Amino acid sequence: MEATAPTLSRKAQIDQTATALFRTRGFAATSMRELAEALGLEAGSLYSHIKSKQELLHRICFRLADDFFAGFAAATHDAAEPAAVQLRRAIESHVRVLTQDVAASAVFLHEWRHLSEPARTEFLALRERYEAGFRLLIQRGIEQNDLRTPDVAFATLTLLASLNWLPSWYKPDGKLPPSEIAHRLADQLLLGLANS
Amino acid sequence: MEATAPTLSRKAQIDQTATALFRTRGFAATSMRELAEALGLEAGSLYSHIKSKQELLHRICFRLADDFFAGFAAATHDAAEPAAVQLRRAIESHVRVLTQDVAASAVFLHEWRHLSEPARTEFLALRERYEAGFRLLIQRGIEQNDLRTPDVAFATLTLLASLNWLPSWYKPDGKLPPSEIAHRLADQLLLGLANS
DNA sequence: CCTACCGATCGGTAGG
DNA sequence: CCTACCGATCGGTAGG
To answer: Cross-referenced Pfam families, in alphabetical order (chains A, B) (predicted)?
Structure first.
């Protein structure tokens, strides 16, 4: 019956617990013994479910990357829309992915550098491609006269930076629902803090 | 005569090299043997200059904290100025500290959680106090009718987030001088991306 | 999934 | 600043 608790496969349980530990203690500072203990088993037993510690990090980082790309694609699917509207949708999608699994997002944002090669290089290429998507939206928004900025690349980095700080303070049980957070972030970034 | 290279004390050399390693590889993943090798000596020899690995992290993090506070105090010294002007100065000061030593800034921003207690708690209290300073400026800017935002705490976090992403892409030899970067960041954050 | 273990490496110290 | 070393812990494996 197990009414409330969702039944996760052992592998999914390991992923989830590893994500939480990597987030709070960092990848390098988390030992496989800690992870095993958090799951209530012995260190050696982990290896009947996973190949290595590195594999855990790899799966976390690349699953998130997939989610970000899927969300971006959906947000910009309607080519008839103004770029500024697509940008707003893309911001909301980005926030949705971040808030859906804050722990995994934090690992994605801060622990990717511990990926071993060639995964690390591959990861950076994906991230660059994702940023390029936002850059293009801002560029087109300027051409359509809806946006303005002296430096598109600069503006893109700043925008994503504001969004990516979210996992460091967002609490899933907070009073603001993710959609409202996304809305406010988009407003603040697009309209600024200055009055008129 | 050692014309160009500044003569650093051995301890300062250790700090500097440790900062660079902690930044690129992370605190936990950096071994004292790596650090020693980068300095051209044996691991054991480090301990005639420092007490522990932890001491290195502590010094880096708290020196930066001092710099941020000193800059903020100078930026907001003139109580006769409108809060919005003080805020702009504080943003510029923050960017100046970040760009002055990007490696140390990155360690300050990402490796502080490896501080052992009670330093870690003390550090978080300092950070909270610093954020409160920005929050107050934004609050007063609203009262003086120069700023607007539905949520001051939210706006403060977003603003600092945008600034704090800088060490992850800033290159000291880039074409934009720090003052210009500060100016653009302040503009983008205060005025937004939207046209009119 | 456990027991028992491997070689490697860790932060740090003693003695010079 | 080096040599030589300490106990502890690391990721991972063999065999069951």
So the answer is: TetR_C_24, TetR_N
Q: Which residues of chain A have pLDDT under 70?
A: 1-6, 195-196
Nearest nt (C1') from B39 Cα: D1
B30-57 residue pLDDT tens: 999 999 999 999 999 999 999 999 999 9
* Nearest CB to A192; choose among B29, B150, B190: B190
User: A98-119: per-residue pLDDT in tens?
Assistant: 999 999 999 999 999 999 999 9
- Helix, strand, or coil (residue B147): strand
Amino acid letter for position B49: H
> A144 CA to C7 C1', in Å?
63
Tell whether the torsion through CA atoms of B20, B21, B24 and B28 is positive or negative: negative
Q: Which of B27, B31, B158, B169 to mutate to test the interface with A (most CBs of A within 10 A)?
A: B158
Residue with tokens 């702009």: B88
Q: Which residue ranges form the domains of chain A, and what is each CATH number?
A: 53-191 (1.10.357.10)
